[in-house]
Amino acid sequence: MHSMVDRLTGYAEILGKVGDNPYTRMAMSRQSTAYVTGHAVAWFTPTPWATLVSLNGNTDSAEELFLRLYRSGGIPAGAWLRVPLPAHRFRGIPGVRLREEWQFRWICGEPSEQKGETEVVRIPTAQYDELEELLREGNPDTVVRARGRGIHEWYGIREGGRLVACGADRSLGGVGYLAAITVRPGFRRKGLGTTLTAAMARRLTPATGAVALGVNTANHGAIKLYERLGFRESVELATFEVASEDGPPHSGSAR
Hints:
- By secondary structure, the chain is of the alpha+beta class.
- Helices cover 25% and strands 32% of the residues.
- The protein contains 6 helices and 12 strands.
- A 12-stranded mixed β-sheet has the order 1-2-3-4-5-12-6-11-10-9-8-7, with helices on both faces.
């Protein structure tokens, strides 16, 4: 028998249901709405990229709630779905395609200090063509673009006048968020990514209190690096692209 579904619209009420931490705060806004059963919560948040649908709860209840909303037309086409791992029950649902299994990691307070942080500078808009070239060469799989929506600032490191590392401030929901950390091939294994991550987190911490980033679950080297910097709290997630049951998922990234 299906559980009763209640609808919530208050920010504090929803946060009380899903738990107050940097992950849930970043996945929410004052415009969020939620659907709640006895053992699962699905909350909807508009973002600059797509509607984000996040699920909390045990696997069976979360799947049941999602399918009820999906089949009734309550999940908008093009939405991004985030569910806690393991998410095997969501694989194979028509119109739902796995994008990535990843970790949302965060630090409350400043990271350990790294050599060279003073070399990290803001990248002005006049240099965005050079930034775009670095992203194409060093991080071809990212869909984060130099002039993309939701980006507040870009930061980078130069060597010999050449931009060799970059990262974006994509803070949201009162949480600092580091995206598209990229080091140019040929300049890797020199600690530039570590330096850039630490410097950006240090700059964002006074305004946000918590700084987060995402990392693929298979990227063990990066995970160890972030843990050394202090990004030890984490949530493991799967992100899916969602379309109508008969339609193909839209293109784009969910992270």
